[in-house]
Amino acid sequence: MFGPRWRKVVRDIGVNKTRTVLVVLSIAVGVFAVGLVTQTFTLVSDVLAETFTRTNFANATIFSERIDDDLIQTVRRMPGIEAAEGRGVTAVKLRVGDEWKSLLLYAIPDYGHIQINRIFRQGAYGPAVEFGAERGTWPPPEHAVLLERSSLLIPGLVPPGLKVGDDMLIETDDGRQRTIRAAGLVSDPGNLPATFMNTAYGYITLDTLEWLTGSRDMNQLNILVSGNKLGKEHITQVAETVRSKLENSGRTVGSLSVPEPGRHPLQDLFQALLLLLNALGLLALFLSAFLIVNTIAALLSQQIRQIGIMKAIGARSGQVMGMYIVTVLIFGVLAFLVAAPLAMLLSQRLVGYLAGFVNLDMPQFRVLPGVLVLMAAISLVVPLLAAVAPVLMGTRVTVREAITEYGLGHGRFGTNIIDRILERVRGVSRPMLISLRNTFRRKTRLLLTLSALVLGGAIFITVFSVRASMLLTLDDALKNFGMDIILPLSRPYRSDVLEREAMAVPGVTRVETWGYTSLRRVRADNSESESIDIMAPPARTVMLDPTIVAGRWLVPEDENAIVLSTDVLKQEKDIGVGDDIKLKVRGKDETFRVVGLARVVGRFGSGIGLGYINLPYYARMMGEVGRAGSLQMITERHDAAYQDTVKKAVEEHFKALGIKVSAGGITSGQIRSSNELFFNIIVALLMVMAVLMAVVGGLGLAGTMSLNVLERMREIGVLRAVGASDGAVERIVMVEGVLIGVLSGLTGAALAYVLGRLLSDLLGNLLFQMPLSYAFSWTGVVAWIVVVVALAALASFLPARNAARLTVREVLAYQ
User: Fold this and answer.
1) What is the Cα–Cα distance from 561 to 794, expressed in whole angstroms?
2) What is the pLDDT of residue 561?
3) Residues in a beta bridge with 564
4) C-alpha–C-alpha distance, residues 317 and 397, integer Å
């Protein structure tokens, strides 16, 4: 049925099954990585786009006092407005065990006609959360709350074991305690999930809002514009007109937010991860090409006499070349058949995991034809490109060259400096010397094998370094904000009383009172920016040490000086050090001189960035001389559990004194833990790719050792003939593999230092718009050395065992 040439192709693939499996798996790992990442993030991106449409995100959000039905109707009739809706947002404290946690409540006027930022009843889709057998009540009854489902994903945000119908104890800003019922779960895909904010939130009616606060007035206005919904300039212009309308009516307007039009808030995060993980997947595929080169080159070298015989009986170079090209294509097809189903299966689980983490509905799983086509193309094209060079070189051999082939080393071993150095090595056992010389005998093959292992190890160590860099960056952020506890108050109180009473609590070693507010910049054209969170520390604070990137920090004699965080400049690009800017303070324009720009890692507040001014000037400007609305404290010990204990003691002490503490108090330990959760998700995804790199490197080493044994069968026979034991033969092969592993581990560690810094800078810029503080992970180095030695031992074990089982008769008969 098949001609002689194609029977040979089939035989080459089937005879050495170990070699075939290693090559197929090596190609499959790279194809699997690309397919997994592309399938997963395509599905998640589709969900993001569908969620954006279904939720009907607000084009702009304005926070203001006294938003009522009359005002909303007025806004709806304004030019450029398609729809407008109001909500009431209030923060309360929720009793969880023996401590108080923050709970954010959104009051919706009409649950039956939500047009903007829609929420949905919790159904059978989305993150798996336990909340009893009932789905709950829609809309929530009076004195009840519908919790957002992501609030249950982090332990400790709500009472443990909470079920539909259970009562929860809450406390309002004025100190009144109420019992509110858990009415059920809802999904709000338009809001950041509780896993990001480390705060539970839920939804109530206006009647419940009035019961809690004494007012039915709302404070959040969501608008949809008509016309160009994707034009940020158009949206901003319409929103500015609405804000002016509110201010002209005598209302105090807070922040105005205009998100990126047409994009889910998490779109940038997923695109950054997709870019990074796809790059690592392609690198895994690139590494697998090394094994293909090694295998095809070894196959051609092993069959050099067969090539000579075929040419002697009339075969043309093109015909011989075609045979090996078809062999490579068959490897690619087999790799695709292995990689495609595995990528689809694991993608389904990964999509569910990511959807749950970011609070998206679990998409209906489907196989994307475009991803399969991409994987098929990669499975065929990459091996083909990798094999072109060795096939061309191997099939161009002449009949004379094939017949006079010297065999191993082509008769050139010992002619270069590395060989001559190895020949002078003394003081080691004969088997060890053989292993050492065998390691460097096939230098091209060694180089390709080392390249795969070195790059795999570099990526593996780099992932550890990225995690260490993320944690160091977080540590830097917490050093910049050097307090252990941040405690906001419901209104300003006398600073001396706050400081004295806080210091009276055991465990508190230092207290500072700060000013805090949100202000907007007034531009030259009289338009206003989104809110800038203003912090006003004492002139000689010990709890703030920002990294100044331009200009200087505040000095005690500064009056109207301000230092801005660099993220403000992303929105207000025309500001520079030395410029005068206007900020709207209590309805009036106040001029400030920008004296410095600071790098701030992490975000505090909800504005576009931070601004710092001296507390004395702030107090006079805001009419709060001698009073403060925020406490910053340093504790005796700085572990999270101790911080929580002291924070609770301060809150109880203040409550007994009648000082009302707002929801939203936080410790540096809580800030760290919530950020670590986010970091660990990213590191987990990177570690999956790092493991794939290690697998490719291990397969490459296993393939190299198998090829080495095949090529040295006569040499092994000679060793057996002169009395070498099974153990001696095994040790020769095993030591060679471990030696390659150790060499690659040390080289990979050196490369990882540079690669780790590049990846940390890239990831920092993609996710946080600034490079991470770099920390090289020696733990990662040790871990990789252990892993690569174990991989080398495992990769060498089977070839070593096979070599030890060979008899003298078998090896002398080997062709």
Assistant:
1) 65
2) 93
3) 597, 611
4) 9
Whole-number Å distance between alpha carbons of 393 and 129: 60
If one compares 150 and 220, the residue with the highest pLDDT of the two is: 220
Secondary element (H or E) of residue 184: strand 177-187
> Among candidates 101, 105, 119, which has minimal Cα distance to 204?
105
The larger pLDDT score, comparing residue 407 to residue 61, is at 61
- Where is mean pLDDT largest: 105-109, 152-156, 782-786? 105-109
Supply the DSSP string of 292-314, one letter for each residue: HHHHHHHHHHHTHHHHHHHHHTT
> CA-CA distance, 481 to 484, in Å (whole number)?
9
**pLDDT > 60? residue 420:** no
User: Do 281 and 30 meet the contact criterion of CB atoms below 8 Å apart?
Assistant: yes
What is the maximal distance between C-alpha atoms in the chain? Answer: 104
Residue pLDDT, tens place only, 665-700:
788 887 777 777 677 777 777 777 777 767 766 666
CB-count exposure of residue 7 (10 Å: 0-12, 13-18, 19+) = exposed
> What mean pLDDT, rounded, does the chain reach?
78
Write the CB contacts of 765 (distance below 8 Å, at least 6 apart in sequence). Answer: 771
Measured CA to CA, the distance from residue 53 to residue 221 in angstroms comes to 20
Residue 60 confidence (pLDDT) above 60:
yes
pLDDT, mean of residues 647-657 = 88
SS (HEC) of 469-531: HHHHHHHHHHHHECCCEEEEEEEEEEHHHHHHHHHCCCCEEEEEEEEEEEEEEECCCCCEEEE
Detail the DSSP E strand segments found in 117-176. 120-121, 144-148, 167-171
Q: Where is average pLDDT lowest: 416-420, 597-601, 633-637?
A: 416-420
Q: How far is CA 726 from the centre of its chain?
A: 49
Q: Residue 600: what residue type?
A: V
Instruction: Give the type of residue at 336.
Output: F
